């Protein structure tokens, strides 16, 4: 007696869930290891310490207002480019990754957008005054003076707003005291420099 031919069961169409799993998941790029985070922090410090040199290179060949307009356009272009590239990285089968820039940004409420815009306005105003200070006092004086002052007040404000959670108060206040002493020293040296320059002009 011949046995009936065995036929494989018809393949079922893939479910929508399975299809979604096969597609790349677009996520926002985040540092996931300590060496990676350290490398990004060092790159940030290099960029943070070098952008102001462009103002020194421009000198009197470009007015401050025009320079700052170009500076803001560069910030906007870089932010949009980073959001549409590093903010939309394709990752296969990574459901634990952060959402993409567009998906994450659209979930925020209107009050969050308002806070972000207000923070950007305050930061932009501070950068404008910092850039003008660099033009007036020089890079070696204005940059440490402004950044040191921001470090001192920002650290103290954050510490008291968070209630001191997760921080060693003794080490924190010791570091803030050293930074404040450095800021005062810079201001004192700049005052001595101005006094010596004024005395030299009177003698001449």
Automatic annotation (TrEMBL):
Keywords: ATP-binding, Membrane, Nucleotide-binding, Transmembrane, Transmembrane helix, Transport. Its main location: membrane. GO terms for cellular component: membrane. It comes from the Eukaryota. InterPro entries: UPS_plant, Ureide_permease. One of its GO terms (molecular function) is ATP binding. It is found in: Membrane. It is a multi-pass membrane protein. The chain crosses the membrane at residues 38-56, 68-92, 112-130, 137-157, 169-189. Belongs to the plant ureide permease (TC 2.A.7.19) family. This is Uncharacterized protein. The lineage of its organism: Eukaryota, Sar, Alveolata, Dinophyceae, Gonyaulacales.
């Amino acid at each position: 007696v011949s046995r009936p031919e065995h036929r494989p069961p018809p393949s079922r169409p893939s479910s929508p869930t399975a299809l979604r799993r096969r597609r790349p998941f677009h996520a926002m790029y985040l540092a996931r290891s300590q060496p990676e985070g350290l490398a990004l922090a060092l790159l940030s410090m290099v960029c943070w310490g070098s952008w102001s040199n462009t103002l020194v290179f421009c000198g009197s060949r470009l007015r401050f207002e025009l320079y700052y307009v170009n500076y803001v356009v560069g910030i906007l272009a870089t932010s949009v480019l980073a959001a549409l590239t590093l903010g939309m990285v394709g990752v296969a089968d990574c459901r634990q990754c952060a959402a993409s820039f567009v998906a994450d940004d659209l979930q925020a409420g209107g009050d969050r957008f308002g806070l972000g815009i207000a923070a950007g306005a305050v930061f932009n105003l501070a950068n404008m005054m910092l850039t003008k200070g660099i033009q007036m006092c020089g890079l070696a004086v204005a940059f440490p003076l402004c950044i040191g002052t921001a470090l001192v007040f920002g650290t103290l404000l954050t510490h008291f707003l968070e209630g001191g959670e997760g921080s060693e108060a003794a080490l924190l206040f010791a570091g803030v005291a050293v930074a404040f002493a450095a800021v005062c020293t810079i201001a004192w040296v700049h005052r001595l420099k101005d006094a010596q320059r004024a005395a030299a002009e009177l003698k001449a």
